[in-house]
């Protein structure tokens, strides 16, 4: 056990136990994490696509904005141990998007500007569990937080809520994405503390 | 963690000197790297490094391809170097 | 920790005694790891400010919302212990070979450059271009004033506020300033640039525009600095 440093506590705070998963601490700012440069796709070039269904489907930004959307308030949990409560988002439910596609695939692999990918089982993004979000806290989502649009899957660790998402491919296999192929858990349920392989 | 200016998120290979020494056992910031995508040859210190993420990501300063990913888990570390064509380290001894 | 020196209201130099320490080269850094009683750990890198051979010292800037720096600047006192790993680095290091040296630092980016200045034999021509927000933010101010002379030229810019009678620069580093301060590229000086990513990129780009070979400019980017 290394010597502990007198008077050092770190900058963590406790939150309501039933809302903070194991190993997490509460923050009130919104930390920015990034694995690369922030992409800046102009909205008139942006599209969202679903591949791997009976027919490929895509929407332009205008078409996407015209889809039914909803405002949701959710707690979010990052695998780097911070949690933020009551975050407010507006976006299009994955149920709405998947309704436009015929498929019996069980999984998706999300792809994003900048090359990031993440995988999700469809049962974890349907029935009101996931959105493609384009507003945060009443304002258009800022590029550093994933704007113009990001995946939002708040019941899983936030690395699954892929920033700068441009679509996903429906697949029969759960194909590990950027972090899942390098040590992070294939699913990432914060309440089961599924951070790494083997957890 | 405070919200940072986006530019502050990008560092260079000097920032992972300690980590790399731990993994490789030698001073690595002056090790030569060759990008597997564009062939750019640079000392590790000149690569682009992102540490504010679930893991450390090292990118080619020329073409921005991912060269390395390093994730530290409890009791083990995952290292992925497939973006590098080659790494030249100083020999020990 | 064996002692502390307050450099500015936000910056403190910590004198350290590290068991097993083998010495260092000017420009290197060390990693500090703090452990809380419940086992929580936080780790950060800090440049070594002392010259090789002198008592080991690091200079730390307190970052707003920082996790380790507020502890090191405000809480740590003589006798306190924490883990360090190092020295680290082999690229951003300088050994005096007599060739002229250009040092460009922003905020706490001046720390590794100060180790270089302190290690100089005294006959090597060195120019330091140092950017700070206000005069009160200038680290090592008195020491730089007393070291400045024939062989060490110190150029300063204060970007936010200047005192009455200030004769230095008053803006962020740019091409014109670099042209006035830097050695001609043909002199092939050693060049070291250190500070925030934005500062380093701007300074390095500015030097390349003056004809400096990109590979001759050694850079070290810090995550954030108030300078």
List the keywords.
heterotrimer, A: 199 residues, mainly beta, Sulfite Oxidase, Chain A, domain 2, 6-stranded mixed β-sheet, globular, B: 93 residues, 3-stranded antiparallel β-sheet, 8 strands, 9% helix
Brief description of this entry?
Chain A is mainly beta. Helices cover 5% and strands 30% of the residues of chain A.
Describe this protein's structure.
The complex is a heterotrimer of chains A (199), B (93) and C (227). Chain A has helices at 61-65, 94-98, and strands at 25-26, 47-51, 57-60, 70-77, 82-93, 107-112, 117-121, 131-136, 139-140, 150-152, 165-171. By secondary structure, chain A is mainly beta. The radius of gyration of chain A is 17 Å and the shape is globular. Chain B contains 1 helix and 8 strands, in the order βαβββββββ. In chain B, the strands form 2 sheets. A 5-stranded antiparallel β-sheet of chain B has the order 1-4-5-6-7, with no helix packed on it. In chain B, strands 3-2-8 form a 3-stranded antiparallel β-sheet, with no helix packed on it. Chain C has 227 residues and is α/β, with parallel strands linked by helices. Chain C folds into 2 domains: 3-88, Beta Barrel (Elongation Factor Tu (Ef-tu), domain 3), CATH 2.40.30.10; 101-222, Nucleotide-binding domain of ferredoxin-NADP reductase (FNR) module (Rossmann fold, 3-Layer(aba) Sandwich). In chain C, strands 9-8-7-10-11 form a 5-stranded parallel β-sheet, sandwiched between helices. A 3-stranded antiparallel β-sheet of chain C has the order 1-2-5, covered by helices on one side. In chain C, a hairpin with a 4-residue loop joins strand 1 and strand 2 (11-15). Classes of the chains: A mainly beta (199), B mainly beta (93), C alpha/beta (227). At the A-B interface, loops of A face strand 6 of B.
